[in-house]
């Protein structure tokens, strides 16, 4: 039996006092993060070294005495902000991210808290609890907060590890991280599919099924464009500017949810119907360097589709194979394996094989070749 970490997002409906405390906690964690980031930078300039995360955590009680309002919020959230800072430094030195930046009021309005477990007089206590029957989640300092989401769930099977409370466009959400047991089903390969990721059609399968990219023509984008024009005409610091900012944030949130729904809808269908999934190992960062297709790629979450397929295949014990990105899947005839190098030109969408006379749709032919190449890989591994 394996365990996985799964996140559940719930919409919160806090009272006015709870909203005030959430906003105060967000501000305090931002202050602690910026304070110790500044300390790290100054220490490195003077001594060539900076203090570790645990050394900085030891300084928190002194900082709370200097700024008494820090004691009003959840202490776990203050420590968690220092662990986030340490993680940002680790990512920087491993060349994953840029150097950590100071947090802004308008960006990253969230804080993390851990589930603290205690036992007293043979009774177990947890700082984070969820009551699905009454739709109430208990969080440190906030106590009981009403929520909405997961109507068919009665409880979480597993241990609650932590929670991230987030304020987005004037609304409040909590993301609960749960460690769940996972029983993998037996792998029995019955079907295989090849996937070719495109621009006009987001996915083309080897079964000649095309999933259209519905994100390219959305009314939400037109609305965002109009709101941004209105924002540029507003006076800085005015109430109207704040209202339009809120509308823009909600429009972007809607766009994000549409994209997320499309990704999960598509990936669930593919995994449910197939046991072996084959796709190309695309150089997505390199594709953004091509000016001819860079603008179109902003509407296509290629990297996210691949990431979601990877973890869903692990959860359901399916095989996801990636073939070499330099394999000429579009140029090779899927019937006789003749290679037509003229098809390198992306403007050619269909072509006829000069050897066997087969007429090919560029993308469908590529997906069939990807499927056969993946089948070879799977057979060679047996």
Describe this structure as you would to a colleague:
- This protein has about 375 residues and is an alpha+beta fold.
- Helix content is about 40%, strand content about 25%.
- The protein has helices at about 15-45, 55-60, 60-65, 75-95, 220-235, 240-275, 285, 290-295, 300-315, 360-380; strands at about 1-15, 110-115, 115-120, 125, 130, 135-140, 145-150, 160-170, 170-180, 190-195, 200-205, 210, 275-280, 320-325, 350, 360.
- The two termini are about 25 Å apart.
- It contains 10 helices and 16 strands.
- The radius of gyration is 26 Å and the shape is globular.
- The longest helix has about 35 residues, at about 240-275.
- It has 2 domains: about 1-180, no CATH class; about 190-380, no CATH class.
- It has a 7-stranded antiparallel β-sheet with strand order 2-8-9-1-7-6-5. Strands 12-11-10-13-14 form a 5-stranded mixed β-sheet.
- Helix 1 (about 15-45) packs across helix 4.
- A hairpin with a 4-residue loop joins strand 11 (about 200-205) and strand 12 (about 210).
